[in-house]
Design brief:
alpha/beta; binds adenosine-5'-diphosphate; binds magnesium ion; 48% helix; 8 helices; 7 strands; 17% strand
Length: 231
């Protein structure tokens, strides 16, 4: 399927319009998105197990990470001591560097071998966090996504949508010190959420948002159904 990254309609996005960038999506490549606490890590296990039970070979990974070099970059990205130090552009480039590696080392080889790949976060995180919430704008994100992903882009991304308050209530139970990104204020996550919803609105062929303020099993069934509809 072909996918054109068109300028975003959101008024927070005053950056100049980029030339249309042509992207191709990869069959059997899926990603889960959503703010922290939305249920990505929990759902990915259930989804993978459901697909494996049907005989599919599934590779799951988390972003940033999923490969040794990418996990190292993750440590730098999430290091709370870099709060207020790391430049937004550094953050953008590091996420893309981590992604380029996991694509080359893990994702593309798995897809070439006919496996299903499910990523806990992928390029739409960069759209929502760096492009939308940090305000770096669509142009940088689009250019870098083209460079980093090429034709390796999920055919379907499911956004697990939850209010910021609800997500906070869920993550509060986790304990442990918040990482650099988790330390952002509620309005930042509100912008992230809006970025995701804008993606679902503007790219309905490859981004679907589902309300996760419902019983886990109900959400899981919807998610599995959505993914199976592409197989
Ligand atoms: N539909 C749901 N209802 C209630 N709690 C949920 C639901 N989905 C996930 N959770 C819980 O919310 C918490 C955060 O989920 P997690 O998968 O770690 O989110 P994420 O990976 O998106 O940060 C976990 O304790 C999980 O069990
Ligand atoms: Mg998680």
């Amino acid at each position: 399927m072909l996918l054109w990254f068109l300028p975003w309609p959101n008024k927070q996005f005053p950056k100049k319009i980029l030339d249309l960038a042509l992207m191709r999506t990869s069959r059997h490549f899926f990603s889960l998105e959503g703010i922290d606490g939305s249920g990505k890590s929990t759902h990915i296990e259930k989804l993978a197990a459901a697909l494996e039970a049907e005989g599919y070979s599934v590779v799951r990974l988390r972003e940033p990470g999923g490969a040794k070099i990418s996990e190292r970059i993750r440590e730098i990205l999430l290091d709370a001591s870099f709060k207020g130090v790391m430049a937004d552009k550094t953050e953008l480039l590091l996420y893309n560097a981590a992604r380029a590696q996991v694509i080359a080392e893990i994702i593309q080889p798995a897809l070439d071998a006919g496996k299903i790949v499910i990523a806990d976060r992928f390029a739409w995180s960069t759209f929502a966090y760096q492009g939308y919430a940090r305000g770096l704008g669509a142009e940088y994100v689009q250019k870098l996504t083209e460079i980093t992903c090429g034709d390796c882009f999920p055919e379907l991304t499911v956004v697990l949508d939850l209010t910021v308050e609800q997500s906070r209530a869920r993550t509060a139970k986790r304990g442990g010190a918040p990482d650099r990104l988790e330390q952002e204020k509620a309005d930042f996550f509100e912008r992230v959420r809006q970025g995701y919803l804008a993606a679902a609105r503007d790219y309905p062929d490859c981004v679907a948002a589902i309300d996760v303020d419902r019983p886990f099993e109900e959400v899981s069934a919807d998610l599995i159904k959505l993914v199976k509809s592409r197989l």
